[in-house]
User: Fold these one by one.
Assistant:
Number 1:
Amino acid sequence: MMAAGAKRKGEMGEAPGAKRTPGHWSQGLLSSMDDPELRVDADDKVVIIKDKYPKALHHFLILPKEKIANLKKLKSEHILLLKHIHKKGIEIAEKADKNLQFRFGYHAVPSMSHLHMHVISQDFNSPFLKTKKHWNSFTTEYFIDSKDILDQLEDKGRVETNTTENEQLLKRELRCTVFLCTLCSSYDG
Ligand code: AMP
């Protein structure tokens, strides 16, 4: 059992400079891709798994079969693959619940290795959503929409993310995401 307050590995709890060797927890998505409990769909290009610590009622990860470590490794040649990942995201979201709103995107500074797109319903109703970091990682610009990643790749042939600036976003005060929410004092438009 985990001690109270201990960070669950794979949930943005890595010490700066930690090594990512084979078998390290940050490689966990690779074994989850073959785990029948988590794997929900696959085709010749991608595997779709359930997020092991879902931050909403429906939370999936879509991973390419091609070995791509992260956003920084993307090149123009991956545009078609990313469009396919986006299309599979729409399909799995519709299958999960047509009435819920979903977002499709990537964490700017992912904690887990191997490129993965999050497909997450916007209810954020989950016992695993426990920390400010979790909330901010899905509700600030730290979460980059798949369409924006595709735009960057099409325009520049690469994806640029600023690690320091993005890590600051995780520390931002909690803000409500409901547009014009009158209950939320920190809403600043
Ligand atoms: P990130 O790397 O920040 O994009 O997020 C990694 C996501 O992977 C988080 O939403 C975790 O809940 C999830 N996760 C961590 N470990 C595993 C695992 N072994 N299998 C499936 N999902 C995982």
Note: Strands lie at 39-42, 46-50, 59-64, 102-107, 117-121, 143-145.
Number 2:
Amino acid sequence: MSIASTLGRPFASMAPARRRSAATCAVALIAIIFPLIHGDDADIDSLANALSYAALALGLNIVVGMAGLLDLGYAAFFAIGAYVYGVLSSFQLQPDWSSFWEPFAFLGLVARMPGQGAVDVVHTTLSFWLALPLAGAVAAGCGIVFGAPTLRLRGDYLAIVTLGFGEIVPIVARNWTSVTNGASGLNGVAPPSIFGTSFGVDATPYYYVIVALVAALIFVSLRLRDSRIGRAWMAIREDEIAAGAMGVNLVRYKLLAFAIGASFAGMAGTFYVSKLQTATPEMFGFPVSVMILVMVVLGGMGSVWGVVLGAMVLQLLQSWFLPDLTDWLHQLGALIGNDAMQKIDLVQSIELIFGIVLVLMMLYRRDGLIPAHRKEAALTFEQQHAVVERVTAFALPGIAPPTARGKPLLEIKDITVRFGGLVALNSMTLTVPEGGVLAVIGPNGSGKSTLFNVITGLTPPASGSIRFGGKDITGLPSHQILQTGLARTFQNIRLFPNLSVMDNVLVGAHSRMQSGAVRSILRLPATKREELMARERVMEILSLFGNRLVPRVNQAVGNLSYANRRRVEIARALASGPRLLMLDEPTAGMNPAETMELAEQLKQLHTLGLSILVIEHKLDVVTRLADTVVVLDHGEKLTEGLPDEVRRNEAVLDAYLGRAHAAVKDIAVA
Ligand code: ADP
Ligand code: MG
């Protein structure tokens, strides 16, 4: 037996949580003792550089990996952070001394120096330790200012705009000579000092600073990832429309991701210039943005430890491995007398090598070195058939049985929706009473899904008004509509495929929870309690579907069967604690047994007090569930009435069965 497997055995037998903390401790220990056992200053310096890229990769991971916002100009924030400290700690700015500066001098932020002329000048002497949070804040502010107008764009458009921003910042740095000293760069940026001792040019203190910074950023990333905030980001990444419909404020959460990601880069920038003691615009160009992106992709999008590893691997490849490899090739060339081989310089071809690494990753390991989402094993026979205690008498928190049963809950008045020349809904008027079940039926293309979209704020109406619970909700963004108590499912299931069943349903509970970014990072008892309660409630909701979902709670929903995905979507809508549940063809793709099972479960929910608006084709389900049926055809209301009346209605039969039915009728008449 090999030594590695002997040593690894106790590790492998640990519980996953203990294994994770053991691995974390081991990594931390190695990071701390490395300079003590390996005294080579150049190597420590390379590691410190690699770690500053790890900090950058962690920030970009929040933007691209978690929130799914492709940012090709991320190095701009690195530059902003670098120049904040660079400008304020070098002697670049030298305004004339005046009494205005007295308080700053008192705080030790500036110093009075004799100038070249008669007047004294101001030297800014910002401390590195103050600059670190300041640069983070300035970069975050720039992230918000830049993101506010652009984050409405998606995908390729966003990538192009960020690319432009990434180009603009170095250009400004090059041309704003009075502040940045232009292309020749800042001179004499002060190294950090601690207790009056300057770091100087020794690599070790820098190394420990960046180790501490990266550790802090890893901590923040992990805390955010496993919180309501991280879930909201991932929901946006997986399906923006569904995230909005489940109550996630898209603009706010995208901006938050942008700001936090930018602040990481700002701090990394400050560290980087303090170590280099200069800053030139060339240090922050497009290739740097791309390199950081490659690190994130290599490590694993959305994987916190993965991107740290990706950054370290690529940087050390560049500073350790490639020079060595070049040397060996030169020696080999000399040995076999090959001239070309003696001239190779692999470090110069780093971008080519990045490209090759990326292509290989895409071919063989698309999820990165450490994938963000671990695959759960398929269920065993026992797990699949385990009996789950079904919660029958649970009251959905937030939904009291309707107090004013029969009073109008959802009132749609004269709603018209047009897509270009096509009128998808024509002056539609509809009322769902409190505690009622209204079924909408109609042939394909009759405007049923459009009706749902216009109610939930996804499609703007051309005219008309929608009131819910007495409140006008016309034109509100979809996350606000959810908060009024309207939750929906989609005809073509819109779940978050890479997230687990638990996380999907937890996103539904997003608007019922409160923890913001700071509280999620601190994870105070109140936050923990909130999270725990939300999880318990999710389990309650899942157990409504018996053993269909409970044993699969940790599986990624992308792996579930079609029927189970429909159930998860309903559970997700229920998690928001709605007053009105809107289901768009909930039994599509289910077999007859499953269909009746679901109809039964929906009936149960209705008995508990939930009002339901359902689009359904299967008439037995409609008859079983609905008190009222509305028939749509070509965007108009054909008729409305009790299920049995509607079933016998001639116009409905015409609309559904079309000309064939009419022909049969004609023959009968003749
Ligand atoms: P149903 O759900 O009743 O089958 P829909 O509401 O999906 O019907 O569609 C109603 C009509 O509106 C169809 O003719 C469809 O092609 C059209 N439609 C729906 N959404 C859009 C859209 N986003 N752009 C253009 N046309 C659309
Ligand atoms: Mg439809």
Note: The pocket of adenosine-5'-diphosphate (ligand 1) is lined by residues 419, 422, 424, 442, 444-450 (CB under 6 Å).
Number 3:
Amino acid sequence: MRTTESVEEVRELVAAARRDSRRIGCVPTMGALHRGHTNLIRSAVEDCQLVVVTLFVNSPQFDDPDDFHRYPRPLEDDLATCQELGVDVVFAPDDQTVYPPGGQTTIDVGPLGQIFEGHHRPDHFLGVATVVVKLLNITTPDVAYFGHKDFQQQLVIRRLCRDLHLPVEIVTCPTVRDPDGLALSSRNVLLASDQRIVATSLFRALERAEAGLNNGEGDLQAIRRKMRDELESTPGLDVDYATIVDAGTLEETDEVTKSMVAIVAGSVGGVRLIDNLPLNTESAPRP
Ligand code: AMP
């Protein structure tokens, strides 16, 4: 495994692999790798002959400087994990490499980046989109892997790849959870044990949505109310949103569409958490 901070070195390694007609996979991460990340990396190692993992805590996508500063950065552990999984290249650049002084260009993804996460974290997706385009341009993969856990993020990335004609396939891997339902997140280590219990209410709200649709309830407003009831009755949780949306557009429709997803976000002790669950809409009444 090669670990590098250098754009040129990554480009050379990727160019050599491409000359050998190897399929190149990239897994962009901010490090503090957990089973959610390792699942993405395993998929990449299975499908590709050169796997590049990027480790970079991208400050522009953080709206809260405290969140950025306390974000965990266990570099040695992350490198050991990558080595164990058979990663070929780890690209762990510093800020100046990704954002050379004088840089001015950013990627604005439009309306999809302004709702939900974008509404609660202005400029978040500007930061995400800009760094993802940079990382994809540096690593030039055939395929890049993202998690369903950040549902809006993978939609935004799919949108920008289409809009900018980026020649990369986007694969979205399922959300990995702890047994109590809490979605794994690098921020979970910042939760005290009582806060961690509070955080499981996010998944319970998603399960309420799932149960509502499985029971054939067609009243989405009523199901949305049940989701909010679950979260609002949990002391210690500040709810940002809890709703059901169309999985392609993120629109909050009144009627059940072919593909829907329940999405929630909130903070526990100042630690912001998001989660979502794809919903089986087969059994729900349709117009
Ligand atoms: P991050 O390091 O938080 O930027 O995440 C890097 C990638 O891992 C993103 O594509 C995330 O969606 C994905 N990811 C994070 N947590 C999970 C999880 N619990 N399950 C699946 N994918 C995840």
Note: The CA atoms of residues 205 and 229 lie 8 Å apart.
Number 4:
Amino acid sequence: MHGMMMNRPLRIADIITLAEKIHPNEEIISKTLQGTLHTTNYAEIALRSRQMSKALISLGVKMGDRIATLAWNGFRHLELYFAISGIGAICHTINPRLSSEQMTYVVNHAEDKLIFLDLTFIPIIEAHLDKFPSSTKYVLMAEKEHMPECKIPNVICYEDLIEKESSDFEWPEFDENTASGLCYTSGTTGNPKGVLYSHRSTVLHALIQCFYNAGSFSPKKKILPIVPLFHANAWGIPYSAPISGTSLVFPGANLDGKSVYDLLEKYSVNSAWGVPTVWMGLLEEISQRGGKKPDGLEEMLVGGSAAAKSLIEAFENMGVRVIHAWGMTETSPLGTSGRLISPFSELPVEEQRHLQTSQGRKIFMVDLKIVDDNGKRLPEDGNNIGNLYIRGNTIAGGYYNNEEASKAAIDDEGYFGTGDVASIDEQGFLRLTDRAKDLIKSGGEWISSIDLENRAMSHPDVENCAVIAIPHEKWDERPLLVVVPAEGKKPSKEELIKHLEGHFAKWQMPDDVVYEDELPLTATGKVSKLTLRQKYENYTLAS
Ligand code: AMP
């Protein structure tokens, strides 16, 4: 027997419609490309999104069409999130840091009908005009007075589109499983794979986020998303913030430590979200300002890569709560939540810090399991380490127009294979050992690069580091520690090895240490171990 409750479709447009009524005056502040600060609010965002939806329809956009954005975090990008999905079209957020080959692939694979771009990215489009579909049209996300001369044919001005339309428009109703967004993950090999979100998955994710990160989301709170709107929906912020009435401060193109600090301070931002590399930049800026944290900053959410204990401690010691979470583009992205709740939040400080280095705890509606190489489930005892699989309403069930990758991604029980290697303890804490492809296999045993990096990072003269596998005749692979020394310092190999000793078995210790001025980053701002492995593939280990 079925229940007798109504079954209304979950729709993204309802999020901004609600915000317009309930939180109309909560502010959205954006750093513009001209360096000025632009202030708007949810009422205006909703109104302009409706105007843009009408403009899209006038341009011939239909349900299911892919409409791309190539843009920084700012108010127009937020409007597009609602305007595009609101009419049943698909918002394809392009990562501007993709290689030319990858970008050519994703635009052609998605068959983007329109591309909305920030002025910064004109050169990228100009360089790809003959590589993208000839039918693709381009819209510059700018006011009339900032429209430059460029080689893009028939380029349209965003504000012209808005100006021509009234806001008298109701978003249509359609099935909640209608596709709403498309985000490609750039694997290390092969072409990028498209994750196709639905209205249902997106709304459910927004609600889950509002629950597990309730501390970040409420009226009078301000979040600064450094995580880009082109990376896994900026971790769901664009949806959870309007539901909850949280203000947003968008950094635009300025993501360096000083710019981020200034914005956090100026607007007394409560919560900032981003990958560890960004927080290392902010930490450096804070230390240059005599250790003073930005006023108002209460917490930061770290994800995308493992947050080192030293990073967590540095911010916690300043009174900034660090929430370490794990997720993937394929998981919408929240997969586990690292916000410590009672009784864990009452544990002695050192025990809390240890838990904070884990990737957080299981959450509602998201099932996790770890399995051995034969697919057999392993006990969740904190000791067994296995391949991590995940299942739920907010998890990708396959990839857009890619049957082969879709088949390979899902196991017999309907779980998605993350490619991560991890343990899960009795209390549901997930602890990542590595990306499967970054693990170091030495003499048949696995060595965790994350553990070694964590310890190395706690050396005061180490600014950043990575541990990678070097091919080895006898042992198959051995670990190499790549260190970026802190300014004006150069810790010796002996000193660094001594710092690691006692924390690892002898066979787990790096064979050698090399120094770099900086570490190469991926398109999403993570350390690119692939690039490092390629650089050092012929390296001869000292021992
Ligand atoms: P992406 O889809 O680009 O966001 O990448 C997802 C991958 O980033 C995951 O499969 C993990 O390997 C890695 N990742 C995400 N969050 C964390 C974290 N907190 N600690 C370690 N690795 C992470």
Note: The chain has 16 helices and 25 strands.
